[in-house]
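Could you please review the protein record set out just below?
***
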Amino acid sequence: MSCCPCFKPEINSFGELLELTQGGFSTQEGRCELVGYKYCDRIDKNEVTLQKAVQDIILFTRKNKSKPEKIQLSWLGLHLALGLCYQYKSMDKVLLRGILTEMLKFSHGIDLGLFMRDLLHYEDPSAANDAVAKSMYVIGHCAGFRVTLTKENLGDSVLMGPSRIVYKELLQKNVVHYFDLPTGHPTLSMSANAPPENFVGQTCMFLACENLKPKVVLVLLQHGASPTGAPLDQLLQTLGGHQLVVGALAGPLKISAPINIIQECLRFCLRAIPRLNVRFDGETVSDLRKKNQDVYFLKREACGYMPDDCYKDPSMLKHLARFAIRKRLLENDLLPSGIDKLPKLTKELVQYMNLLS
């Protein structure tokens, strides 16, 4: 068939542009940056579509994923594809999520760590900063994004070494939410000598809670990230530890500024769950064996700084209705955009559904 004069093999545009940019670059990053400029020029001239560019980049990475000398270039190519989607403000979730899935095969979650690093560094997700805007663009397309861990052994690529023990329950699932995946270390790169399997990552929500960034916590919650388990446990432990120090050194009535930040993070998280099951009598050996993630332990000294109704029965019906509606929207990949489409919601109820009150 290849001998037929009518047959013209399809040219991979990414491979072609890489051939045109050989030599003269000290780093692969610089080379990919030039390829990006050339892609934009071709897209603007309608010589290639954004979809075709992304498709060619993904095909290139799949073809070269087993070649050590091409792994970093392939990973950078995927970031280039993501950058092109951001540049042209593509709202194609399938296209963007395809890129994110391919990234997981290469970086073991490093990309997710990079996005979170930018958000945590600038604190305010609404900051006029291109790095933050790009991270928010990615997060905006991840609400409702479910990853099939058994597809192409994706679970083995993301969860390696000690992570397979720490996240064994996650690994046993077939489909998981993208935000439930642990991040790779944000300071690592694809060319780093440190093996990724030695690093145990944390979820985006845990990092936001650990760093006490209320605005980042809120954004993640609004896009469907779950605070249950380690994130809430981290906040409650921080609250309990803070109260022991403040109570011993300054008296219970003198509250330092960080307590307000802890409370704000906690308040947002509690709006995203039906209720908080709290115990004040300490964790027992039986509790450790059961490892019930729905039960949290809190020092009694800290309970005075918790919202009054967050751990008392019965829960408010309005709050339970919010949780049920948001859960259904998330299951149908309509969070948070679907909130504005709900019928007969007042402005106050829209804010309530968005966890702002």
Q: What stands out?
A: Confidence is low (pLDDT under 50) at residues 244-257. The first strand starts at residue 146 and ends at 148.
